[in-house]
């Protein structure tokens, strides 16, 4: 293990563990005031005292995140729950957030957990909820707790409760707002102007072709003037110009709460205006949430919640999820780093240069690619709570969720799309709407008799989801049209003579229907022994007749050792509880009706008739499968909860094994079937892990408190089986990440983790000693026994000294696809987070860290920016400055082997390969990191000085988010993961850079 990992470990010990151990020696007398209030957690349709929980549940309360000035709840809870990984795919405003609970179980389908907001299912809920409105977040991690949710519970369940008003409470107004600025934290180093031109000199002159030599002189000048001309020329730092602006943020939160004897209400308003560090990018969100509860009588209570959110993400971004052909980051890295060198000024579009280099000035391109992604979210839910008897309660919840997505994209005349369509602008308008109706009805019976406590729950639930989608792709718009004009006037497009405009595409999302019945029984004896059993039966129209029903049982037990006589009198021990759970959860996350063959209409399969395109009918490329059924996850969990010294030291340890079988896999099948894919139940995965949580109130004086919380998790994921139908009898198959077409750079293999990189081992470069030299022809020929990487890495061009050398793993004397091997994986060995919270009189300070140890990152940018491939006049990674040289300082090509070896005695990098992009171990880096995610310092004005103004609380604070990251990773960010396939995680390709956020704010309560 390298020194960075050791230093990170010691930092954890000194910052966290040593102060926690000091807690045991701290003596305090105020025991009663230090006792925690009996917390409750939400577990499957009802609340349970935290002391009586038998399952693996992670909880985040409002107090934990109330001082976190971030715009999404996902950011606020990152690193706070053991076993839960939360990562932003990149640093763009509104970037997609991936949440995995205990590693994820699927290999081709989504591993996202199920989100329940105030009893209603919502997709990606943490991204659209403001942290200021969170009352609590519970993460159900094991199947013993998630099986009560049956369908989609296999990947965990996130239960979110938002704040409401309080009965018999005076009206209270709270305003919190902050403003700040973001700046890019680091850039990718590239060649400076002189090194760039010297590299081009080598490319143009190496082969001695007269036309190439003349072309270089025409473009860059004579060699004897290069040092003076480009050694002092002003450098254009395109990354700084594109990403280096100060991006301002303004966030406002306003809440009004109150209540009467019978009612309570809460109104929350949130408005965010956030600029992105990339020009023309930004994020805007306006949200309103209103909750109302009313007691009609002592037995009957009703309430409703209305949430509406409008969100706009602006900017075409860097095309992180696209392929190499759509990478916009390339232009900021590889465009020539200075002005001049062409007959066309650098700030004007040069079509010839674009053709020769496949590059466009990144600032001009940014102005010509416009993307506005608008999302409207509506949630309506209402409940009725009726106490039939003192011990029997009926509850009914009805919810409606609607999401509308509108994406407007514009490609101006300089873009490759427009240049391939008569140099005229193009517009694409995409519209999607999804609707979900939910109804849940439960009967809850509770009874205490003697030393016995019984809690019974019966329930029924229906969920219906449907929607529509449409897309219009309009070419040949007027050259002078602006993006906003184009979005509103697509009818102004005029096809050239003989050309036909593409017809709009429309479609309906397959309706998804779910009917469920469930029950749970919880029994507590003598406040010592607890057993909970549940069962749920789900029927889903995703599957065909005979396969629609899935049954998901679970059982969990707990033993409160603290309540035993031999420990009950121990005042130093507050809690000691042993837990065990076993359960089965299901997953049905595939489109509906794939068990039968349906025809759909599309212009993609149409034919020309008259002046338009008549849509044709097709079955698509996915073969029906009548036998496909539920994916099933079996989870076993053993846990221990403990607390010492009246709550001064507390924590938990959990160990689990999660086995998933009958994986819902989108399998590639022989095309002799007439189809390309088929959904199948095939394969098994397993996750095994440990989770450790520890917290302590280290100092608890009247004027000073110091509290710390720490969690660390480890998860080992392996593929147990891929199924004969998927793998063709093999124990592996190759997977393409997609950043380069037809590059299969991942392997799914039995016994390996999901997300294993697959490629060649970098051996360095070929040296003079690897060749025989013919002084007559001045030709270098590889010696016998030295394997050639020509076909793999150099476009089948003859290998020369300094070329990239790959390892011959099978010893057959040549480099072929057979020499590829496993290069590591994206799974960390450990991950977690820790916080430090200090309060001194009216001052407060908090620090929050998150970390990851042992994961590998696939730096695809590193491959692209160090590979020459097809184009000259492209800038390269700064590593290329240390490449093998063919020309001496006088610009003369060195041919003598001895002199050539001496010239390169102090260089280490190989000549940028001329072949297609391949994965080799040079791009696989250690992604371990320790990040100070948030540091906040606040001051609360004394309350007695505010009372005369009617102010209850007034706090001022300053915060820095992403203050620093300790890592050896050389890319933008070690957490970047830009692919959307569970089989291809950890790929950093064309990711939007992460920024540092410095802000100040106020929190004011009347």
Automatic annotation (TrEMBL):
A Gene Ontology term for the protein's cellular component: cell outer membrane
Keywords, ordered alphabetically: Cell outer membrane, Ion transport, Iron, Iron transport, Membrane, Signal, TonB box, Transmembrane, Transmembrane beta strand, Transport
Recorded topology in the membrane: Multi-pass membrane protein
Lineage: Bacteria, Pseudomonadati, Bacteroidota, Flavobacteriia, Flavobacteriales
PROSITE patterns linked: TONB_DEPENDENT_REC_3 (PS52016)
A Gene Ontology biological process term: iron ion transport
Protein name listed in UniProt: TonB-linked outer membrane protein, SusC/RagA family
Major localization class: membrane
InterPro entries: Beta-barrel_TonB_sf, Plug_dom, Plug_dom_sf, TonB-dep_OMP_SusC/RagA, TonB-dep_OMP_SusC/RagA_CS, TonB-dep_rcpt-like
Family recorded in the similarity comment: Belongs to the TonB-dependent receptor family.
Pfam families, per the entry: Plug (PF07715)
Signal sequence coordinates: 1-24
Organism per entry: Chryseobacterium rhizoplanae
Subcellular location: Cell outer membrane
Domain annotation TonB-dependent receptor plug: ranges: 50-157
